[in-house]
Amino acid sequence: MAKNKPLVIILIALYFAIINGLMGLTVSIFVLFFSGELLTAWVKILFIVTLALCLLSFAASYGLWMLAGWGRKLAIAICAISVPLNLIAMKIPGQEITYNDAILVIVSIAVDLLIIWYLLRDDIRELFADK
Fold first, then answer.
1. Which of 2, 32, 89, 91 has its CA 20 to 30 A from that of 99?
2. How far from 97 is each of 30, 105, 124, CA to CA, in Å?
3. Are the C-beta atoms of residues 72 and 124 closer than 8 Å to each other?
């Protein structure tokens, strides 16, 4: 019997593919390869980690779409890593954070925490239970 996929799981899978994956990958590659010597070492490290998370987001998206237990766990891990990375990004020496940047970081953290909360719910955990 096929499992019904909740709309929220579909939206989270699309979020991981489009926002975390495609858009994050594009921004990370652009910043890393076209900013030259303008980036400090800390910013380069942050964008390399972000690039890795973007690539893993494609796998998480697929796993969520397929209702695979590993996809749920990977999505939770990516969100859990993203929260402190966002906080670190606001405190990098030499980087000025604007009001709009701060709002974007706060929204990103809120989305990550909501995704973690949703994927840890008992009914969702059961939906992803590996047989």
1. 32
2. 19, 10, 37
3. yes
User: Could you read off the pLDDT of 35-91 as tens digits, one per residue?
Assistant: 767 777 777 788 888 889 999 999 999 999 999 999 999 999 999 999 998 888 777
Distance CA 11, CA 27 (A): 22
d(CA 49, CA 42): 11
What is the pLDDT at residue 114? Answer: 98
Q: What distance in Å separates the CA atoms of residue 130 and residue 50, rounded to the nearest whole number?
A: 29
Would you call 71 exposed, middle or buried from its count of C-beta atoms within 10 A (0-12, 13-18, 19+)? buried
The pLDDT of residue 1: 44
Residue where the block lists tokens 């402190």: 84
